[in-house]
Write the structure tokens for this entry.
Amino acid sequence: MNEIFTQFFYIILGWSLGILSPFIIKKISERREKRNLENIIFNDLKDLKKRLAPLSFKVLPKYGKMDKETFEWLRNNSGIDFEGGIKKLLDSNIGIEKIIEILNQRGLQENTLVYFKKMHLFAIDSHLINLSLIDSVLMEKILEIRFHVSAFNEDIDSFRDHLKMTFQPGVTDINNEILSKELKNKSLYIAKKSIYISDKINNILKNTKNRDFTGA
């Protein structure tokens, strides 16, 4: 009797495993795909932030607009190598305010424009069809960043259009002054937008440590 029961048990077990195996394999495969997709997303975001974050360091001093808050943000986020002249200034104990003053003075003396490059999320864009695999809240945040990057690139197009106008023949001094003000305003806006998007990326990357994407 026990032998019959054992044989029957193994038959049922084998039958159950046969039915469940495709489902289990599918779930394991989806989990692996999700993990791989998340890694692709996070690496793409890190690369974007690496290119975005230093922009304000290049732009703000040129208009004397570097301030303490932005300087501290750059030290924590931009990945800029401060081992050169800035570190020496920091080590000299002259104070951050004085360092910022020096940066602004040097920037104003340069009297040049920053030529902005457009930003892209090539890896994420190539996997848009698979975004449904990831957490819905994370997906919303990714799409939000894509929207801001698109708007960022439109601002760069506008900046370039105004820059081209300065080279057109017959531009009067008054028009040139107006264009210069527009270029300044657009440059400062783009620099601030780079910080805004970088902070959005920070929010996502911070939450990846425990895979909790429900935070603000």
Summary: The two ends are 62 Å apart (CA to CA). The domain at 30-59+113-207 is CATH 1.20.120 (Four Helix Bundle (Hemerythrin (Met), subunit A)). Residues 212-216 have pLDDT under 50 and may be disordered. The chain is about 75% helix and 0% strand.
